[in-house]
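Duplicate of #3305? Posting structure anyway:
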């Protein structure tokens, strides 16, 4: 069980970092949120790949990274711009 959790964290970190690298613009997202969005992107990408019957691991990773990029955009839209204190 611990090995599976550790792999989700490591995989989420890798996918989150790659998503932040490919997403244009500044992203002031912390490491924990990067790992969470990456893990969610990996889960969503795996689900989408399963629905599309994709078996190639590289294509599954690409779908996971794209899903994480979409989640970054959604997170940015939901979080919005915070007003600056004077």
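Output from current build:
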């Amino acid at each position: 069980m611990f090995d599976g959790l550790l792999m989700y964290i490591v995989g989420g970190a890798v996918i989150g970092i790659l998503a932040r690298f490919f997403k244009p613009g500044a992203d002031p997202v912390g490491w924990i949120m990067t790992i969470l969005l990456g893990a969610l992107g990996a889960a969503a990408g795996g689900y989408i790949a399963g629905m599309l019957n994709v078996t190639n691991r590289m294509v599954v990773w690409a779908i996971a990274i794209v899903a994480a990029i979409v989640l970054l955009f959604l997170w940015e839209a939901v979080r919005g711009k915070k007003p600056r204190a004077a």
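Confirmed duplicate; merging threads. The chain has one domain: 2-79. The chain has a mean pLDDT of 80.
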